[in-house]
Structure formats: C-alpha cells, structure tokens
Amino acid sequence: MPIQEQHVQREDPPPFRLDVQLHDLLTKAPAPRPQLLPSNGDGKFPEPVFPQHPDLLAQDDNYEENLASAKAGKRHWNASLVYRAVNGWMFPYMKSRVLPGPFHPIIAYLFTEWKCNLDCHYCWAFDNSVKGMTEEVAKRSIDWLHSTTCRVLAFMGGEPLLRPQLIHKASYYAAKKGFWIYLPTNARLLRPDVIDRLADSGVAIFNFAVDAVDEKPGLAKALTPVRKYFDYLIRKQYKYGYAVFFNINICRNNLEDVKQLTEIARDHGIATDYHLNESPMIEQDHFKHYDENDTFIHPQDFAKVDELVDWLIEKNKSGYKMVNSVKRLQDMKAFMRGKVEPWNCRAGQNSIIIRVDGTLAPCFPMYSATHDWGVIENHKFEVPQLNEMKKSCQTHCFSTLNHNLGFCYNDTRVLKWVMKQAGHGFQGVSGSFA
Asked: Could you say which DSSP state residue 39 is in?
C-alpha cells in the first residue's frame, strides 16, 4: 500500500525539541533576566520627515517594463541602493573578520512586539499578554547597535506593524544611521499608506509571510485577504528601491498552496524563502496549539513533503528566485527526519536578538530562555558557553539566515560569491549564497 494511503497513528509533537539537559540549563536559571538600567536621555525618536521623496508617491507608470526586467533577473539598482546593501552587509562582514574579539554582530533582530493580530496554529512566537518595546528601548537599541559593527536591522514580532508609527520612526532613525532595514510582516496591516511611509523612510526588504492562497483552519497568513496590499507593494518597489519576497512555512496541510505561492511569486518577479514547520525548540507555556495540531509534519507526511521539496529543487535549478540553495532544500529532508549536521552557527557572535524588554539572546529559538546573556549596552555573550550550547542546539535548528551567515565564514566562498555579483554590476543577487 502506498505510504500516503497508510493509516498511521498521529502523535502530537513534544513540547520542545532541545535535549532535556540543555533545555533545563537554559530555562531554569537561578535568577530572573537582568533589568535594563534607566537612560539619561529623553528616549524619543526624532519625528520622521514624510514624504522625503514626494515624487515617489505617484504610481509607477513603467511597472510592466520593470516587472519584465525583474523576471529576467535584470532589475536595475542605482549606486545609492548598491551602497546601502554593501554598507549593511559587506563592510560589517569585513570588519568582523579583521577586528579583535569574537563579538561583531552583522544583523540584529529587534523584537518590537511579542503580540500578534493572527493566530497561526504552528506559531509560538507571540504572547498577547506581553507589552511591546518602548520607544526609549528601541532608540537605545539602535544607538547601541550603531556603536558595534552591526548595520542590518530586522524588526521582529509577533507582528511589528501592530504599531506602524513606531516602526516608521525607528526605520527613519536607523536608515539615517546607515542601517539596512528588513521588515517581516503578515501584511494584514500593510496598507498602502503604511507601505509609502516605510518605503520612504528607507526599508530595504519586505519579508511577506504567507502560507496559503486562501485562509484555512490553522493557517491565517493567506494571500487573498491582503491581495490589494500585495499588488501595491509589488508595484511600488521599483520606485522606492526595496525588494519583496514570500516567506513560506511548509506545513502538512498547505503543500499545494506552497506550489501556488511559488508560481505567484515567479509571475511577479519576486523571490521565495521556505521553512519546514517546526515545533518549539524551548517549551512555551503560552502556546495553546500543542495538541491535535494540523500544521505540524508527521512521519506519514514525509513522502509528500519529499515530493514537494523535489519540485522546489527543480524550480530552483530552472531559474526561480529562491533564498534557499538547492543544497539547503535537499537538507530539509534530513532535518524533517531529525538528522542535522553541525553547521557553524554564529548566533551570539554575528547575529543577536533584542527582546522587547531590552535583554539579549543569541537567536530566535532562544527567545524564551532565562539564561543571562546581558542587555543592550552590556552584552554577556561568551564563546565557550555558546559553543557548548551549540553542540546540541544547532543539530535541532534549521535557520536559513543563520545558516547562510555561518556558511559565509569561509573566505574562499565569500570571495567567489562577491566576484560573481561584481560581474553582474551588483545588480541584485545572482544565485543563492549557500
């Protein structure tokens, strides 16, 4: 009998994926997290100027021409946009290779919210009882990051656009300091006026999180309810100079949607990024969908997911724009079966997260850990502790961006990739990095 027709008793996922010993060490600290000391400043962002570029508010009359170029991999980036990307990624990377000491962040994830307006059943990364980041903490975080090598700022949640005014102020302030700004969103609050303000302030990437074409039980991040916002976002990217990609979570109940969304992205000249649905790495007391969850992948689903991954690999090889490399897509099959090789995770050294209260952690899965990694302006990341932790945790983790970051700490790889981009005049990324 074919595997997809077999009836297999489904088991609910465990409350956490991490090894028990490490889990207890990270979540049963003898003392609460440290408190951020008060600041002597006024704690307010300057009021953003809007519009900085009034001519960009007009609709793009050359949309079809720009779309055709983008689909052909020939989107034009002017010198200022090329410099913005180089200043955000390349210069910090070079500094991290030559400056003394192990702590040289390149990217920081600023959790302005731990609340969300949706309830996707796989997602534990929100708790609507937690207050969002204050303007003072957000400003101090950006100032502190600017004093380090970090020049990539990613807003995180929850849903960052629950307070669009705060994100506008923070984006405007960070862009003036030379940060390359990355905004993930479920797009339910991404109205055209919000798009214009954020794009005008300097947002470089909109990570459009979507898991289905039409909303279905357990999967609220659907394209149809926000299709007008998506169309506006796509059209205006060529005027403002930002980029858009779909961030898609592969679940047991959206395999056909993944294919449809991939083709929609292709039709609109944008990239895609794929993740395999994962249960929490650390137990989340607030997460209410452990039991009878129709999104988590079970052994009886492996064959169908393998088939989807093979389809994605074929599309990648044929020229579809994807953040994931062919190798990383292939690795999904092993990860789904609990087999992950160590991959040189750089969390806590070249990537960090800042929680809503200003405390620090090395990576997104460790948000709920009680271990003391310090606060903004006073980090406590120690390489021996991180290395010992990663012996276990990185074999349970499939972070795309952190994997790409770890992959780049090989000078030969980076040099070859940079030369390849230089050959295209740095006109967008040619091929996946890893």
From this structure: P
Residue 2 falls within a domain, yes or no? Answer: no
Neighbours of 78 (CB within 10 A): 10
Amino acid identity, position 177 = K
User: Which tens digit of pLDDT belongs to each residue from 243-260?
Assistant: 999 999 999 999 999 999
Confidence check: pLDDT of 286 > 50: yes
Among 320, 315, 328, residue whose Cα is nearest residue 265: 320
Q: Which residues pair with 353 in a beta bridge?
A: 109, 361
Point out which residues pair with 248 in neighbouring strands.
274
Does 27 fall in a domain? Answer: no
Helix H or strand E segment including 141 = helix 135-146
Burial class (CB in 10 A: 0-12, 13-18, 19+), 87: middle
Closest residue by Cα to residue 81 from 349, 426, 335:
426
State the Cα torsion 328-330-333-336 to the nearest 10°: 0
Give tens-digit pLDDT for 5-54: 333 444 666 787 888 888 888 888 666 678 888 887 778 999 999 999 99
**Residues spanned by the domain of 292:** 46-423
Cβ neighbours of residue 9 closer than 8 Å, sequence gap 6 or more: none
Residue 434 lies in a domain: no
Query: What CATH number corresponds to the domain at position 50?
Result: 3.20.20.70
Phi, psi torsion values for 379, nearest 5 degrees = -75, 155
Q: Which helix (H) or strand (E) holds 413?
A: helix 411-423
Q: What number of residues does the chain have?
A: 434
Is residue 114 in some structural domain? Answer: yes
Mean pLDDT for the chain? 89
Query: Structurally, how many domains does the chain consist of?
Result: 1
What type of residue is 262?
T
Q: What CA dihedral angle connects 194, 199, 202 and 208, to 10 degrees? A: 80
Report whether 273 contacts 205 (CB < 8 A). no
CB 295 within 8 A of CB 219: yes
For 131, other C-beta atoms within 10 Å of its C-beta total 10
370, 365, 342, 343: which is closest to 353 by C-alpha?
A: 365
Q: With H, G, I as helix, E, B as strand and everything else as coil, classify residue 183.
A: strand
Q: pLDDT tens for residues 155-191?
A: 999 999 999 999 999 999 999 999 999 999 999 999 9
CA distance 261 to 220: 15
CB-based contact 333:308 (threshold 8 Å): no
Cα–Cα distance for residue pair 374/113, rounded to 1 Å: 19
Amino acid identity, residue 231?
D
Q: Could you tell me whether strands 152-156 and 180-185 are parallel, antiparallel, or unpaired per DSSP bridges?
A: parallel
pTM of the model: 0.91
